[in-house]
Amino acid sequence: MWPTELVLIVAATFIVAGMVKGVIGMGLPTIALAALTAMQGLGDAMVLLLVPSFVTNFWQACVGGAHREIFRRFWLFLLSGAVCTWFAVGLIEMTDAALLSGLLGVSVVVYAGYGLFGPSLPKLGPSERGISFVMGSMSGVLSGLTGSFTLPAVPYFQALALPRDFLIQLMGTWFTVATLILGLALQRHELLPLNLGLLSAAAVVPAVIGMAVGQKIRKRLSEKLFRKVMFGALLVLGFYITWGAANSYIV
Questions:
Q1: Rounded to an integer, what distance in angstroms lies between the CA atom of residue 148 and that of residue 49?
Q2: Helix (H) / strand (E) containing 221
Q3: Ramachandran angles phi, psi of 176, nearest 5°
Q4: Staple partner for 77: which of 56, 132, 155, 247, CB 3.0–4.6 Å?
Q5: ∠ CA 86-98-92, rounded to 5°
Q6: Res. 229: pLDDT tops 80
Q7: DSSP structure class, residue 189
Q8: CB atoms within 10 A of CB 138
Q9: Nearest of 114, 195, 99, 76 to residue 145 by alpha carbon
């Protein structure tokens, strides 16, 4: 049903992205989206990302026992992010595909640059509802337009100086909500082809295998070194996607 080349690309992408998530608890959506966009285009990449991202992030969100505290403290972020994701998807058909790819490329470059060189953000304190609304809304818009859930959500969460296990569960919760809303919105706007949806479901297998391998690597490899390699690769991919989008206008 699917071209062999596409199956191999998807399998390899999600094995690598799953390994990254297994080691540091995040990175699967961003790495998979960046790699697949570079090879298949943003539209197909957003669809292929859906099921592996949902399954792995739901798994992550279920571990930790902090569900009540997460929803009590971050309900406004999650709600504003979900609403903005839903409405932003509706803009895809009215926006040039190259522009959206360029937006993704820039967001990946910013995220990778922050991971490699960014200073620690000031602690924002435990109660930041106003900021949560703004950050959630901005994250939702980027999620709906590009399929990338990390900015500015992850730097914002990190600035709150949360305990590591709580932070990992919170990121899993936001990524799960964003993935679910993105999938429903793409289906509503008839941007979810059945063949790619089925391939996305099949991609859960390599993603889970990659996560299992990554969890074993975590015990042997310095997380600091691994993060440098991951962000360095993302930086290159981000520049590549941005250049490809800009080149479409130049040509």
A1: 10
A2: none
A3: -65, -50
A4: 132
A5: 20
A6: no
A7: T
A8: 17
A9: 99
